[in-house]
């Protein structure tokens, strides 16, 4: 990441970026991003990287969770890059509040390790995925565009590994039968089967091969599962599968 000099940043700052090149034809409005990290050098580095990307606009910065929530409410961004270890309100609590209050905003957790308990907590709080802080600039930009489009940026397989590692923290996984959890009641037997296969880390194509159906049929079932569970993406669906005990650690 590019070097930058540390400057005194306010807890919350709405940025006024220089004019940028227009988004590629057909790309529509730029993806609006807030940077939330208590290290001003880290924010500046991300800002410099994203300023070089067409179709992405940094609209605000925050140095703690409280400021991140306030910025999200005021600016209604598409994506927030969220550090988890910040003073005061941490990134986990901020993620939970933002995803509850600003359902159109996607959160990407910033973490140091890919199997980090904080990244796991962030997913449970509603984040659409996580990124390592040393992610390459091109991968960072692609991840932002991906979650802005409604997809997750961490694979279900990685999510499963995290859930299995930290499943002891799940309140219902070992004790409550899945039939008792109201989140699963509305699922049909086929949708429940689809959810289990999703939780096993299978892609749509792999599920289609397993069930001997078309990928279009699988996509329809996956969409129904996400809608009935009231979750944003496959990663959140996998979290629910473990939380409810449908999948055992």
UniProtKB/TrEMBL annotation:
Annotated Response regulatory domain residues: 32-148
GO biological process: phosphorelay signal transduction system; regulation of DNA-templated transcription
A single MF term (Gene Ontology): DNA binding
Protein keywords: DNA-binding, Phosphoprotein, Transcription, Transcription regulation
Residue positions, PTM 4-aspartylphosphate: 83
SUPFAM superfamilies: C-terminal effector domain of the bipartite response regulators, CheY-like
Domain of life per record: Bacteria
SMART domains cross-referenced by the UniProt entry: HTH_LUXR, REC
Alphabetical list of Pfam families matching this protein: GerE, Response_reg
PANTHER family: TRANSCRIPTIONAL REGULATORY PROTEIN NARL-RELATED, TWO-COMPONENT RESPONSE REGULATOR
Protein name: DNA-binding response regulator
Lineage of producing organism: Bacteria, Bacillati, Actinomycetota, Actinomycetes, Actinomycetales
């Amino acid at each position: 990441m590019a070097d930058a000099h540390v400057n005194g940043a306010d807890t919350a700052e709405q940025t006024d970026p220089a004019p940028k090149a227009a988004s590629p034809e057909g790309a529509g409005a730029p993806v609006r991003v807030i940077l939330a990290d208590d290290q001003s050098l880290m924010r500046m580095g991300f800002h410099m990287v994203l300023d070089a990307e067409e179709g992405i606009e940094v609209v605000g910065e925050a140095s703690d969770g409280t400021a991140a929530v306030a910025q999200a409410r005021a600016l209604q961004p598409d994506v927030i890059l969220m550090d988890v270890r910040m003073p005061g309100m941490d990134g986990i609590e901020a993620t939970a509040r933002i995803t509850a209050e600003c359902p159109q905003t996607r959160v990407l957790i910033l973490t140091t390790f890919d199997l980090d308990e904080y990244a796991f907590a962030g997913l449970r709080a509603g984040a659409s995925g996580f990124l390592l802080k040393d992610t390459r600039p091109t991968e960072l930009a692609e991840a932002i565009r991906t979650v802005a489009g409604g997809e997750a940026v961490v694979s279900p397989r990685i999510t499963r590994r995290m859930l299995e590692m930290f499943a002891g923290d799940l309140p219902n996984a070992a004790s409550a039968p899945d039939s008792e959890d109201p989140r699963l009641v509305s699922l049909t037997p086929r949708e429940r089967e689809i959810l289990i296969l999703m939780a096993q880390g299978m892609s749509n194509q792999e599920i289609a091969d397993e069930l001997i159906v078309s990928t279009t049929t699988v996509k329809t079932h996956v969409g129904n599962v996400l809608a009935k569970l009231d979750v944003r993406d496959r990663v959140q669906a996998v979290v629910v599968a473990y939380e409810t005990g449908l999948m055992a650690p």
